[in-house]
Structure formats: C-alpha cells, structure tokens
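_Backbone structure tokens_
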Amino acid sequence: MGTAVWLGRLVFAIIWGVMLANLVAPFPDKLFAFFLFLMVLLIALHLIQLLMFATVYKDHMQWRRGDYWQIVLFGVIGWLAIVRAQPARTQQQTPKT
C-alpha cells in the first residue's frame, strides 16, 4: 500500500501543478474557466473529506497538524497515509518501562 500512496501523491501533485499553472499563466479560451472550476471543486471536496474524517476519527486516532494539510492536498490518498502511520505513532506514545 505504500507504493499506492506515493503514486497517488504523485498524481495529485501533477493535478495541483496543472491547476496552479492555470492561475499563473491562464490557459486559452474556455480552458481557464474550466480548470478554475475544477480547482474550486477539488478544494471543496477535500475540505468536506477533512471535515468528515476529522469529526469521526479525531478521538480514535492521533492527529498532527500536517495531517489536516495532507487531506486538503491529497484527499483520500492523504487519509490512507495517515491511517498507515498510526501504528508507528502509537508505538512512540506508549511509555517504555
């Protein structure tokens, strides 16, 4: 699953790169409006995912500040990375006697 998470992050990085390139150097004709609409939709959907995940799982998982940004930027792929990191985080939190 680690490879799938990194591949998903790569895909989203390319998507964000195209969306931001549209803002810096607008695409011709109606493509500018289309990609602007897609960017707003992507941000809205990822914020809804963040709201859902943070509301439901806040008490059951260890959250870090960067986890919120992972979900905003990568959506479900970011969520998979957070879930995958939980065993290591719980081992760090358990006191050694």
The mean pLDDT is 89. The radius of gyration is 17 Å. The chain is about 80% helix and 0% strand.
